[in-house]
Amino acid sequence: MLQNSELLKQLKQQIQESVPKIEGTIKATEKSYGFLETDKGKSYFVAPPEMKKVLHGDRVIAKVISKNGKDSAELESLVEPALNRFIGRVTFYKEHLQVLPDYHLLNRALPAVAPDLKEIEFKEGDWVVAELKQHAMSQNRFQVCITRWIARDQDNGLPWLVALAKHQLPTDAPQAEEGALVELPDCSHRRDLTALSMFTIDNHSTRDMDDALYAEALAEGGWRLVIGIADPSAYVAEGSTLDKIARERGYTTYLPGKNVPMLPRQLSDELCSLQAHVRRPALCCEVLIGTDGSITGTPSFFTAWIESKAKLSYDEISNWLELGEPLYHDINLQTPLQALKELAEASNLWRQNNAVVFTDRPDYRFRFDAEGKVFAVVSDPRRIAHRMVEEAMVVANICAAQFLAKHNVGLFNTHIGFEPEKLAEVVSLLIENGYSTSVETLGTIEGYSAFRRQLQADNNLWLEMRLRRYQGYVLTQNHPAPHYGMGLLGYATWTSPIRKYSDLLNHRLIKAILSDETPVSPAPEVGEKLDQQRIASRVAERDASQWLYCQLLTSAVEAETVFEGEIFDISRGGMRVRLVENGATPFIPGGMIHSERKEMTLDNHSGCIMIKGKAVYRLGDLVTVQLIKADEVRRSLIGKLVLPVEDKAAIPDETQQQTEVTE
Fold this sequence. Notes:
Layout: H1 2-18, E1 21-28, E2 34-38, E3 43-46, H2 48-51, E4 59-67, E5 70-80, E6 85-93, E7 96-101, E8 110-113, E9 127-134, H3 136-139, E10 143-151, H4 158-166, E11 191-192, E12 198-202, E13 211-217, E14 223-230, H5 241-249, E15 253-255, E16 258-260, H6 265-271, E17 279-289, E18 295-313, H7 314-323, H8 334-354, E19 363-368, E20 374-380, H9 384-405, E21 412-414, H10 423-432, H11 439-442, H12 445-458, H13 461-467, E22 475-477, H14 501-514, H15 524-559, E23 562-571, E24 574-579, E25 587-589, E26 600-603, E27 608-611, E28 614-618, E29 622-631, E30 636-641, H16 653-662
Parallel strand pairs: 8-10, 11-18, 12-18
Antiparallel strand pairs: 1-2, 1-4, 2-3, 4-5, 6-7, 6-9, 7-8, 9-10, 13-14, 14-17, 15-16, 17-18, 19-20, 21-22, 23-24, 23-29, 24-25, 26-27, 27-28, 29-30
Helix pairs in contact: 4-15, 8-9
């Protein structure tokens, strides 16, 4: 009998080992069942009892079970949990504390403990930060630990507080220790430029002004430009407590209606801010611009004392130059302002012909009432004053890149253009669309820039949007390298040291060179961390904006308001558009595009929506949209096309033919 028992065990083990195993990701549904998707795109049904062991997004290993001709997955082991640190809302089950993760399809409250927050009286709906401590697949049950309380469910500041907590960003300005804000010794060696008619141009509400400008037309042609940048390195010593705080934050985080500064407000908004009629320490660059808009000669860097003669706004300068409205400031500023306008136009024209200039798009600004509730979004177009400042900053950063590259130090903004491994596919796509190019050509900054200029001249928005998937990322590196995206051989920012730690570091390096010291470039990991911090800040801004849009546009859903929107993304499930009026980005499900799903193909690769074999919608197209849902819980906007596809005007023949060729 014992021998038979052992043989039976061996037989069962052999059967188990012969059962095929797969690895994949759990995809939950709104119902109790789910699916396991492999990396090759194959899906296996996961029954409700099995789904109780896992969460949406978990990476697992499973056995494939066949029954009645159908395959399903029987979960075996956990590879990687979907949750680690997460944001959620407090709920209670029979007075037991639980946390409901704030993620779509993670619709299960998990048992929770909060041993380090005994002073908090948790209430239903409270927002918290939690960490997964036990997983049901490996430890038989789920349990999470609440590590931080964020806010009550009705707090007006939820969009900001949750976005900052989710991306592990600070919620308040840093505080300076008493006596820490004193000028450092290098201030005594500065030039005195306080008599120069410099000025700042910013938004009306800006308090942390970090750039002042002066321009003059030269008798022999061209212009002289002086850029004065606020110098927080005059107060923040390397390795000091404030320096460590700034390095950890990396950036000032800008959210709708709120900013969280990198430096204490006493510095960013007061001691370093280039306020009008106040003497301030600055790092300056003087550069000559030729009549063709190019940089001529060798720019010079130096430290100085400067005094802005006026705080000007984009609107008042643009109204003065574009509309002829009076400028209610010192009349002596009009000549340098006019010179800056002419310089900026020449510089922009040079970049259009020799580098890459981005298409102007409006900025969208939320407006809030006295209680902090959003009541409107206004569109701020890019006007002449914006371009004046932008061109001056671009010139300044080109000069810094040249200056730092000579000493092989600095933090440089770099961009590789198209990813090298994707170049062949890009070339094939371009040739199909009538462009003559090659891998060798697009692999050079000259060839890449020339192609980008041609694409803009053709106004081929559809192709431009398609090409984004092949682009590399902008990286911060500690060695000189081109910036393909701007069409420049080098670009090193130093014009926002109040707001960006990389710019503060470049200030120190430039000043070290000016003082005949031996500058030392930051380690590579400094740039890597800054890139991560930049992305976190931008995603937090997007998350907060999406929440505010849901609050604001609930009334538009009720009123059945119609908007014009630009298609900027197409996926298997539908398309996403950007509303021209306010910048909101609702999703339009496939069923709201065409009623017969089998007749429609949504192709992200080609950037087209095909209906009955015809390309009807493409990336960059303008469509008419009605919002049908503003889901504040999920922070999502859902829309539908106002006109059914059958009523949509036909695409012009030549465009249709070009689209069909690329398919």
